[in-house]
Amino acid sequence: MKYLFKVFVAIVLFGTLQACQTVAPGSPEAKVIAVQEAVEETEEANEQIVSDIPDWCTQLPSSDFALYACGIGDSGSLTMARNRATLDAKRQLADSIDSQISSRMEDFLDSIGTGNNEQIRQQSEIVTKNVTVEAQLTGYKQTKSETQNVGTKFQHYVLIEYPIGQANQALLNKIQQDEILSTQEAADAAMAELEAEIEKKKSGS
Fold this sequence. Notes:
Blueprint: H1 2-20, H2 28-52, H3 55-58, E1 66-75, H4 78-112, H5 118-137, E2 141-150, E3 153-163, H6 164-177, H7 179-182, H8 187-204
Antiparallel strand pairs: 1-3, 2-3
């Protein structure tokens, strides 16, 4: 019995000594420990971020009259976190605007019945790109925002809105100004249809 007790004490003492042992800075062991600690801190921060994301950011508003995007940005500087969040939202919104404009242009080409013409197709792509670029620069507005502290950084969320009617109006203006697209047969009827859709969006907004 005394022997077993001595063995038990020896094991406890050995474990204590091992725990108290210091790792030399710069050693492979120290690097492994540093990496493990960094991973654990990142996992904890990520868990906090996921659990704290505002509902309006994970479930974007649905509307027939506007496009929405939620941007997220983090930084040790509050101003930088806000700027990054806005930039993130604008990038997402640009994709949505491009999709919206491209869809409207396809409808227009289907209406005039010359969408397979190479010259018409190239011109439509130019107009679509120009309208998308212009739409990215203006017209959006911030509807919600929230800033949270995550460790030593600021985590900023921003929700921005862009009226669909505004993008469609920009497209109509470009088509009307384009000599190739506006002079196609049935172009007047197609533009009138697009204009009616724009008015519909405006009246519902």
